Amino acid sequence: MKNKILGLCFFTSIFLSAQNDYPYPSLSPMGNISQIIGNTTIKVAYERPAVRNRQIFGHLVPWDKVWRTGAGHCTKVHFDKSVLVSGQPLTAGTYSLFTIPNPREWVIIFNADTTLYGSGRYDSAKDVARFSVVSKKTDRFYEAMTIDIDFIPNNAQFYISWANTQVSFEISTSTDERIADYIKENLLTGKSKVSDSYAGAASYLLYQGKNYKLGLELADKALALDANNSWVYNTKIAIYEQLKLYPEALNCVGLAIENTEKRTYEEEKYRKADIDRLRAIYQRIEEKMK
Length: 290
What we know:
By secondary structure, the chain is of the alpha+beta class.
């Protein structure tokens, strides 16, 4: 009788498996992030477990033990260029992300083995970066484990949040260094003959708040290649304002208006709009000089 019941259960299991062609939702659905930070693309693929009325940290996820930082297969993080994670270098490539949660701080681990299911075969010898971060409580409740990438100019803050707990760490890209090299090798040498390349570099320095003097030099080189590059006039005016060189800024506004009056427009209303905008800038700068 027992064998008959076991046989029936086995047959029923096979039957249900064979008949199950409906796409039932996963309890831990896949999550994917792709974010451009400066000149670097960061991608994350992870399975997102949910709280589902369970106690998470210290229970479902034990304290002081290696955790896969998700569910199912290991969480994977890909960088298309070399970066620094919390100050530690990582070459371009794909890594698994493990953590060791603790009430006060977590250990963050980037590991070279991306084939793992869970953390059972995790090998610390394959770690490529390991560091600690402070654990924080959140006002928001995260039902599903969530990875977020926020960014500040050219660098990122990587967040791991679940229930009312959150940790984060900084990812630094090589954007500034690469642009500095490009400016030195291609623009300051005059190798590039494209006005917008110089204009773009000047604008970049303006909005990064860096080396305004170099920004003005590059803007002048852009105008030498194309005197009708209106983008450059706007950049020069803004740099002069940042440096509080208001007479120079007013002179540049005047040159921009002259250029606008001569430049070809598809419709006159666009010329008028640009001139009105420049006159408003002129008045604003005059107010600063009082």
